[in-house]
Amino acid sequence: MQIRNSFMQARPANNPAMTLRRPLVLGGLAAALGLPLARAQQRRSLKDPLRLGVDPALMESGLAPALQKAFGRDTGVAVQLVPGPALPLLDTLERGELDAALSNAPEAEQKLDTQGLVHDRQAVALGQLVLVGPAPTRKTPDPAGVAKMTDIAQALIKLRDAALGDPQAVAFTSAGDGSGTHVAEQALWRAASVAPAAPWYRNAPAGGFAAAVRAGGGYALVERGAWAARGGTPLAVLVDADPRLAVPVHVMRSFRVSHPAGKIFTGWITGPKGRAVVAAQAGYRAPG
User: pLDDT tens, 22-62?
Assistant: First the structure.
């Protein structure tokens, strides 16, 4: 399985200095977070890092790597990032093959939380989708004519109509992979009462979604953070004003496994230091 195999690929290098720091740091963190010291000391006997599943947009944007780096620097605890689309990733978390997850698929997360299949689900960041497409100029509008629209549902309807009229000039690229971006995109098509279909509607090839969209030259819904990190000409952000484009990001722990550093991680990532990292990332803001 792709997610399972990526454990080995993402394993961090051993750092003796970090290992020596870890018991002392964990003891202090445990006291600060109200955790029993014995539970923090249990970490001394574990060599495996905290396995954190991460949606691709949160990798491409740099948000997850920034949180991983800052948490490791601050605590000495190793976090292994395991990239994967949100829906299959949450299935993996529910099976106990991950210790925790950073996800942007709130409805699927809420379902697991309601069933008691994840613990400690907390808001980490608020992101946003943006509709990108061929950059308009003063003399030439974008082919679908959606630039600067403020209603995303109306923009998607207009895009569909333009694509049906000229599918060679107007095309839409979908992540098509069960990622948080894909799930949110599908919800927006439903809100517009549009059933997108070939030939103008296509799935991105494997690899970085934002980069694939940029190379393809069509329209797409992309998380703003990923676009800030990977996007650019010949495309531009055309629609971003609708509140329905908001994408919340949550952290949660698995119900089936209990990594000794799990509570410390969720406490740190949702606390002042984690919020500062989020606020410094383009395309995100800390939850209110």
Answer: 444 444 444 444 444 334 333 433 467 999 999 999 999 99
Query: Could you tell me if residue 285 is inside a domain?
Result: no
pTM of this prediction? 0.82
Is residue 209 within 8 Å of 60, Cβ to Cβ? yes
Domain that holds residue 144: 128-246
Retrieve residue 194's tokens.
């549009």
CA distance 220 to 142: 13
Q: Which H or E run contains 65? A: helix 63-75
Angstrom distance (rounded) from CA 6 to CA 92: 12
CA 283 – CA 167 distance, rounded (Å):
31
Residues 262 and 99 sit within 8 Å (Cβ to Cβ): yes
44 residue type, one letter: R
- Can you tell me the distance from the alpha carbon of 50 to that of 76, in angstroms, rounded to the nearest whole number? 12
Number of helices followed by number of strands (H, E) in the chain: 13, 9
Residues 172 and 43 in one domain: no
Task: Write out residues in the chain with pLDDT < 50, as ranges.
Answer: 1-46
Residues 15 and 117 in one domain: yes
Number of structural domains found in the chain: 2
For tokens 């601050």, name the residue: 74
